[in-house]
Write a structure and sequence with these properties.
Blueprint lengths: L9 H5 L12 H6 L13 H13 L4 H14 L1 H10 L1 H8 L3 H7 L1 H4 L6 E2 L8 H5 L16 H10 L3 E3 L3
Antiparallel strand pairs: 1-2
Helix pairs in contact: 3-5, 4-5, 5-6, 7-10
């Protein structure tokens, strides 16, 4: 976080996936960030949350379901999402990247939940700067541009091309 960005507090903090830690917020953090009463009173360590996600994901029948659970987790709590990925990269990276993300791209229209990234449809040709100015973060340091055939075919079906996609 740069000096000019403000860290949300209270309910806003719990809705910001970049800063939300769920029940891993300590009692001190809950007091400091105005979270008291907004979370269950028990503090749960990040390690225990990771173990619970492992159990949840292990019970699912297929990789696309696992991808969706991880994607939903990323949308709510990036701290926990990345902790799960890093706890067992050999198991979880294939779920959020190749090969599972290929199936997710093919079924994008059926599984889309909320935007993550920016989409530049062909109909916006010549207006790239205008569309990019709609992105809420002004301090962008990393961009992933994808143009693989599976993404392109999915994008064509969606009549847009995913240019920046966080995985």
């Amino acid at each position: 976080m740069t000096a000019h960005q403000h860290r949300p507090t209270g309910y806003e903090l719990l809705r910001d996936s970049r800063f939300n830690k769920g029940t891993a917020f300590t009692e001190g953090e809950r007091h400091a960030y105005g979270l008291e009463g907004l979370l269950p009173p028990a503090v749960t360590t990040l390690e225990l949350q990771v173990a619970r996600r492992h159990d949840e994901i292990a019970r699912l029948d297929n990789d696309l379901q696992k991808y969706l659970v991880l994607s939903d987790l990323q949308a709510r709590n990036e701290t926990l999402f990345y902790a799960v990925l890093m706890s067992d990269p050999a198991t979880y990276m294939p779920l959020v990247y190749t090969p599972t993300v290929g199936e997710a791209c093919q079924k994008f229209g059926h599984i889309f939940r909320q935007p993550r990234g920016i989409y530049l449809p062909i109909s916006a040709r010549g207006r790239l700067k205008e569309l990019l100015s709609n992105w809420p973060e002004k301090d962008v340091r990393f961009i992933v541009v994808t143009g693989t055939p599976v993404v392109a075919s999915s994008a064509m079906a969606n009549r847009s091309r995913a240019v920046c996609r966080e995985v």
